[in-house]
Design a protein that fits this description.
single chain, about 475 residues, mainly alpha, globular
Amino acid sequence: MSIANFDQNQSGQPRQNEDAKSLSDILGKLPCPQIPTDVELPRSKLPNDAALATYEARILQIQRTLQPLGNQQRGQAMRGRVIRALSYLQSRTLVTTSVPRSIFTKTYQLALFCAPDVDWAAKSGPIIGASDRKIREVLGIEHKAGRALDTIRRHGMIVPFNPRANGHRRYRPACGNAPATGSGFSLLPLCLAIDDLESLVERERSIARERSQLPTEIRSLICAARRLLKPFRGAAWADELADALNALAKRKENATAAETLTAIRDDADSLLADVEGAVGNLSSETSIAQPSGEQLSSLVDTEAPDHNTGNLSSLDSSSGLAEGRRTDRGSTHQTDHRAEAQRKGLEAEAADTFGIERSGFAWHETSRIFPFSSGMFSFEPRPTLDHTHLLGASLQVTQRTTATIIGQLGLEAATIALLVAGQHFADGEITVSTEAYLKGMMKKARKGDLNLGHTIFGRREKTVKPKPSIPN
C-alpha cells in the first residue's frame, strides 16, 4: 500500500484512509522549491536563430530544476497573476516595449485556453498540445497555426515542449500522481517571468497615469467648472473663479511629473466644489449679478487685494480654494464630476490606439524628436491638413497615399507616422522608399500593431540621455 492510502488509528495500527490523497496533495503541504520568477522576457522579437536558441536553452536549464508534479493552489495563483498581467498588456498600446500588441493578445488567448491550474506550477508549464484547427479557433486566425505559434515563440512567450519531428501536438492532463504529458509548446516562460511581466504592467500604468489619465481628469474637472460659470460671465465673483481655473489650466500645461499632476487634479477637484457652491447658493434674484454678501464671503475674501491670475497659490490662500470648502449640495455634485473625470481618464488611456497619448507627445517637441523636420514649418499648436500633405510631398509620398494614411489613422497620427518614416529614412535605417515604408505601417495599423508611442518614447529617451564625460 502507498503512503497516500493509509494512516494510523489511535492504537497505532495502520488503516486505510477512505479519502485517499494523491501524491500532489501531500507534496503541496510540504516545503518545496518555489518556481523561480526572475527571468526577463525579450523586449522585442529575437533577432535570429542563435538568439532564440540561447534564450530557450536558459529556460530549459531552469525547467530541469522544477518539480514534475504541480500544486493546485500554487498553479491557480500563478495562472491568475499571468492572466491579469496579459489582460492589461493586450488591451493597451505600450511604449516601453516593442513587442506588438497582437503578440500579447494571442498569448493571452493561449493562457486562457490552457486551463488546468496544476500545470501552471509544474515542470512542464502549461502545455499547448491542441490541433491546428483548435489553435486557429483559439487565436481567431485563418492561416497556418504553426506560423502563428512560431511568431509568438520568437518573442519569447512560449518554448517547444517535447516536440515531434512531424510537428504534431498532443496533450494528456495530469492524473493522480502522473504529471501532464504531451508535445508541442509550453507557456512556462510566462511563469518564470511573471515578476518581469508585472513590472512591465506597473511601468505602463505609471506612464499612462502621468501622460493620459491625470491630464484627462484635470481637463474634465476644469471643463465642468467652466460650464457652470459660463452663464455668469462678467460678474466679479465669476470672473475671479474663472481666473483661478485659467491659472490651473496653465499649471497643467507645464506639468509632467505624476506628483505635480496629482496635486493639480486635487486643486481642480477643490476648485470645482467652490464653483458649485457659488452657483448653487445663488438666489434667482441675484443670479445674474453676484451672490449675496454672506454667500460671497464664504467663497471669496472680499477684503483681500486684487490677485494676479497667474499666481494660483496667492488666489487660493485668500479665497479658500485651497481648503476646498463645500456645501452639501456641492459635495454630491463634485463627487459625480470626480467619478466622471476618472472614467474619462481610463477611457482615454484605453482608447489610445497608437500610444501617442501615453508617450506624452506634444507638437512643440517635433524638431527635437524628429530633427530632420527642423526648419520645415511649425506644427504648433496642431498640424493642419495642408502641413501634412506638404510633409508627405517632401518625403516623396504621393498625395493619394498621404490621403489614405490620414483617412486610416487620423490627421495627427498620420502626421506622426510621416515624421517617423522621414526620420528613419534620414538616418539611413530603411532601404525602401518612404512610401513603401508607410504602406507597411498602414498594414501594421490594420492588425492593431502600429505603435507610434514606443517610437516617440524611445527617441525622446535617446535625445535626453546624458553624454558620457571625456576624461582629461
